[in-house]
Design a protein that fits this description.
Layout (H helix, E strand, L loop, with lengths): L2 H15 L1 H20 L22 H20 L14 H26 L7 H18 L16 H23 L6 H21 L1 H11 L1 H14 L11 H23 L8 H14 L13 H23 L4 H21 L22 E2 L2 E2 L4 E3 L2 E3 L1 H24 L2 H11 L1 H6 L4 H27 L17 H11 L5 H16 L7 H15 L8 H7 L14 H14 L1
Antiparallel strand pairs: 1-2, 3-4
């Protein structure tokens, strides 16, 4: 019998044979059931509170969040009790995941109750259902906190039939699409719903990681890479087709994709090559201004109108040239010195675009007024600025641009993946880890860094060409170092660090969070940078490798953490190195 099996059986025996843990688990189950039942009661007596929580038997969206949290908490409690068919939820233990889910459900419920009191102005505005919900949600949190830790190494998972794994992948992506769509589609007039959504999603995602379920899903997706890529692409394309409010929220999705595309380009510079670039948004501006000047805008100084493919290539080429021109004299610098130079380039670009107005400089960019009236894209008679009916669904202008950005994002992901796995990609990583050692091994550090700088700039320029047409105007104020509205250099760098440097999905997740949160919580605009700074401090303290990190980063920041799994298959060179070290030590 294997060690993992013995550990699992010992943990299960301890949880069921001892009266205290079993009683605590059943208490958590009872509390979850009571919490779920309370969502069918009225939580306030008046419809003045957004969302209408006055109806019995029909939970409002805020109550649905508590209901989802209670159901998940109950399922994990039943899994800890050894209920047949639920063991797959907790490959590495149930206590941490159960406690995090219970705490998230309690936090979501308590936030809703406090919001009712603050919004309506008095404690008496709460109906008994809200009080029952808060008290019931606290029970599983307290019970799970008192449970003994049952963290263990995950036993090898039994490989399922290929069709079953495909169904799992499709179900996971469909669920992910629903969760993301729910967050984007929340009404801006109901910020309480979006905040509660963020609370529950953050706790639930953490619980899935702690339970080991995400690691199991990663193994399944790794075995079915083509199915995973296809499913992700299909789910992304399906987003505009399931929008009930037209283009209201599709514009947010378009901007997220533009932001994420630029962040992936920056990830080449920062995540792979290890170059700190604080003026990267300028390359986005170069692409946008170039596209505006050659796309037939009425105020363009050139008076030409290229087709989009030519305008996109021109924007990429212009950004690439600027990347080489800026990188050639500066990339011999390192660390803080390089960061200061790139910061200066970003500010110089913004000021220069504001001065090319015919007075302070040549009449090219129309100065602070920018270049307005950029015409909509048109492919083979398909005008992106008009609504079109596709598969019986009417797609608005922003849905057209969304689908175009999906294609461009896929192209950028392919470029990033191929470049990162290539010979020059390995050279970037070597330079990032130790430039002196890499140079001693024969890598031309300057040339390798210049290629990274130029490629990252070209990808940002490509995204800028689309941004110019989406916004139909380009102004210098869009390309600052830091500000309340992304994308800017500070937010781009934060998206890479928050998501996870050197990964593909990390910057995409980071960009989505950093754009969606300010867009939905506009009432906190004056405090966004404060909250942004606090979030980064907490991230650096508790998860410095980012939300989605590669194995190298996990081992680097958590080398003494038992939770980090060491790769099962080791390279021959590593094995020989360890053997040689052992012999030398002996």
């Amino acid at each position: 019998m294997s060690e993992n099996t013995l550990t699992t059986e010992a943990t299960a025996t301890a949880a069921t044979a001892s009266g205290a843990p079993t009683g605590l688990l059943w208490t958590a189950v009872a509390g979850s059931v009571a919490t779920a039942a309370s969502t069918f009661l009225a939580w306030t007596w008046t419809t003045a509170f957004p969302g209408n929580l006055t109806i019995y038997g029909n939970p409002a969206p805020l109550q649905l969040l508590t209901l989802v949290g209670a159901v998940l908490t109950g399922l994990y409690a039943l899994s800890a009790l050894g209920v047949k068919g639920l063991g797959w939820l907790t490959p590495t233990g149930s206590r941490k995941a159960l406690w995090i889910l219970a705490l998230g459900t309690f936090a979501t419920t308590l936030f809703t109750a406090l919001s009712i009191i603050v919004e309506l102005g008095a404690l008496v505005d709460l109906e008994p259902g809200a009080g029952i919900a808060v008290l019931a949600a606290a029970v599983p949190a307290v019970a799970a906190y008192k449970l003994p830790d049952d963290t263990r190494k995950a036993a090898p998972a039994k490989q399922l039939a290929s069709w079953a794994e495909v169904l799992i992948i499709v179900a996971v992506f469909a669920l992910g699409l629903f969760v993301v769509t729910f967050g984007i589609d929340t009404d801006d007039s109901e910020p309480q719903l979006f905040i509660a959504y963020l609370i529950l999603v953050a706790f639930a995602a953490t619980a899935l990681v702690k339970s080991g379920l995400t690691a199991r899903l990663s193994q399944i997706t790794a075995r079915n890479r083509q199915v995973t890529v296809t499913a992700s692409l299909v789910m992304a394309i399906a987003f505009p087709f399931i929008q009930q409010s037209g283009d209201t929220y599709t514009l947010i999705a378009v901007n997220i994709l533009i932001f994420a595309t630029v962040a992936l380009g920056l990830n080449i510079v920062v995540g792979l090559a290890g170059l700190l670039d604080l003026g990267y948004v300028a390359f986005l501006g170069v692409g946008a201004y170039t596209a505006a000047l050659v796309s037939g805008a009425t105020s363009s100084a050139f008076g030409v109108q290229f087709p989009f493919w030519a305008a996109a290539l021109t924007g990429m080429a212009a950004s690439l040239v600027f990347g080489v021109v800026i990188g050639a004299p500066t990339l011999r610098l390192r660390g803080d010195y390089l960061a200061i130079v790139t910061l200066g380039f970003g500010e110089i670009f913004r000021i220069a675009m504001g001065n090319l107005d015919g007075t302070s400089g040549p009449q090219i960019t129309n100065g602070p007024n920018g270049i307005p009236n950029i015409p909509q894209l048109e492919f083979f008679g398909y005008n992106f600025g008009e609504s079109h009916t596709v598969l019986g669904v009417e797609l608005g202008a922003y849905a057209n641009y969304y689908l175009l950005m999906i294609f461009i994002m896929a192209l950028v992901v392919v470029v990033f993946s191929r470049a990162g796995n290539s010979r020059i990609g390995r050279a970037w990583v070597a330079i990032r880890e130790d430039e002196t050692a890499a140079t001693a091994m024969g890598i031309n550090g300057f040339r390798v860094k210049l290629v990274a700088f130029a490629l990252g700039a070209a990808l940002a320029g490509l995204a800028g060409t689309v941004q110019a047409h989406v916004n139909t105007t380009v102004v210098p104020e869009n390309y600052v170092f830091a500000g309340p509205v992304p994308p800017n250099s500070a937010f781009l760098l934060a998206a890479v660090i928050l998501g996870g440097m050197g990964t593909i999905s990390g910057p995409i997740v980071g960009s989505a969070l950093l754009f969606l949160i300010p867009a939905k919580l506009s009432f906190l605009q004056d405090y966004q940078l404060l909250g942004f700074g606090i979030a980064l401090i907490l991230l650096m303290r508790f998860r410095p490798e980012g939300l989605i990190a590669n194995k190298r980063a996990k081992l680097e920041f958590h080398e003494n953490d038992d939770q980090v799994a060491v790769p099962e298959q080791r390279q021959p060179a590593e094995a020989e190195s360890d053997t040689g070290t052992a012999k030398a030590g002996a």
